[in-house]
Write a structure and sequence with these properties.
By secondary structure, the protein is α/β, with parallel strands linked by helices. The protein folds into 2 domains: 303 residues, NADP-dependent oxidoreductase domain (TIM Barrel), CATH 3.20.20.100; 31 residues, no CATH class. α1 packs parallel to α9, α4 crosses α5 and α7 packs antiparallel against α10.
């Protein structure tokens, strides 16, 4: 396990992050406490120090488990949790991005984690109502109070994040150092705006859903006794999984490891989030650290799931429009911004 700086900060985090939405079986499909402990220990023994949870994961059980598992060596681990999602559906102020819910959620998370601070606080989802000025000021207040060390944002439009970080930079507030969102070989939409934004803003991207809930492993392509979240998946996913299965056969690695490494080797600052319900699954996923995909293998996977960047990206990237802008000089211009 190697370590990376988290965005535009000096914080060192492991190149893989452990997602703990599976810690606790309150929702009927997670891992009980003893198995959660095995998963945590396997990650820590591999050198992992970056743990991700949320105030609502398994009704708070996930945070309690994380707090208990990290307590003996709290300062070694980088604990990230989230706020936004409602914990009391009939109360309008028990969810959202606003200051009142932020304060209430953070205090509850600190109690469950049994710590006096969280290393990283994520805004979980953009509510479309709270002014960005309120969010950034309130987050900065938590940082200044020492309850939060760094802030990140998840599942939010690129233009909102750009506005927020620009505002923070201009006013001397704590900026978002990382972005968390969906991304996999089958879900490449972030390549349109979100990933270029994180690159421009010097943010780390933490992708979740890398294996599409296990659908990318190939267990839906043929009869299997592996536990499944749903009864079937789409033909498109099965087609992509078939390519992964063929590469797995050629390389001697598993489909999960290949899918994770496709994400790890994207041309962005990435720290994949690994989620597992069993220790065996996590140990398999950690095997991705033992090899890298060749350029030819990456190209094969890219072709299995191409992306249309759409307007204005495909328009601006066309040879015709580049000719209109640069004349014949575009190939002669050296820049790192493209």
């Amino acid at each position: 396990m190697r370590y990376k700086l988290l965005g535009k900060s000096g914080l060192r985090v492991s190149e893989l992050c452990l997602g703990t939405m599976t810690f606790g079986d309150d929702w009927g499909w997670g891992a009980p406490k003893d198995e959660s402990r095995k998963i945590f220990d396997a990650f820590a023994e591999a050198g992992g120090n970056f743990i991700d949870t949320a105030n609502n994961y398994t009704n708070g059980t996930s945070e309690r488990f994380v707090g208990e598992f990290t307590k003996a060596d709290r300062d070694h681990f980088v604990i990230a949790t989230k706020y936004t999602l409602s914990e009391f559906p009939t109360d309008p102020n028990f969810g959202g991005n606003h200051r009142k819910n932020m304060r209430r959620s953070v205090e509850g998370s600190l109690r469950r984690l049994d710590t006096d601070h969280m290393d990283l606080l994520w805004l979980h989802m953009w509510d479309g109502m709270t002014p960005v000025e309120e969010v950034m000021r309130a987050l900065d207040d938590l940082v200044r109070a020492g309850k939060v060390l760094y802030v990140g944002i998840s599942d939010t439009p690129a233009w909102v994040v750009s506005q927020a970080n620009t505002l923070a930079d201009l006013r001397g507030l704590s900026r978002f150092v990382a972005y968390q969102g969906e991304y996999s070989l089958a879900s490449r939409a972030p390549e349109r705006d979100i990933l270029p934004m994180t690159q421009a803003m010097e943010m780390t991207y933490l992708p979740w859903g890398i294996l599409e809930g296990g659908e990318m492993t190939g267990k839906y392509n043929a009869p299997s006794e592996e536990p499944k979240r749903s009864t079937d998946t789409s033909e498109r996913i099965k087609t992509i999984a078939a390519v992964l299965m063929e590469l797995a056969k050629e390389t001697g690695h598993t489909t999960s490891q290949i899918a994770i490494n496709w994400v790890r080797q994207r041309p962005y600052h990435m720290i994949p989030i690994l989620g597992a319900r069993r220790e065996k699954q996590l140990k398999d996923n950690l095997g991705c650290l033992e090899f890298t995909l060749t350029d030819a293998q990456i190209e094969c996977l890219d072709q299995a799931s191409p992306i249309d960047l759409g307007f204005p990206h495909s328009f601006l990237g066309s040879n015709h429009v580049r000719g209109l802008i640069f004349g014949k000089t575009f190939p002669q211009i050296i820049t790192q911004r493209q």
